[in-house]
Amino acid sequence: MKPCHNCQAVIDEYLLDKQLEPLRELTVDDFNLCHDCVTVVSDACVTCGGAVYVPRNESTTPDYCPACRADAIDQTGHDPGWTLETPSV
Ligand SMILES: [Zn+2]
Ligand SMILES: [Zn+2]
Questions:
Q1: I need a surface site. Which of 44, 46, 54, 82 has the fewest CB within 10 A?
Q2: Domain count, the chain
């Protein structure tokens, strides 16, 4: 049993797995956080309409789910980050 990196609670893999379910690409092994410290927002990905994972220390909801972010890195060779780039005017 690994402790949560954020709050030091023991990670309940069952609860975390349930929480991560909409993400599909991610499993409890990708996290060192407990279910209390993980935020998942459904239907928020601008590309696939799937759920996004909100990283800690991130104040805004990401526009890309982890899978689409990875796809973008594959296709363009650069990391788009979690949010759509706002064109500078
Ligand atoms: Zn925690
Ligand atoms: Zn997506």
A1: 46
A2: 1
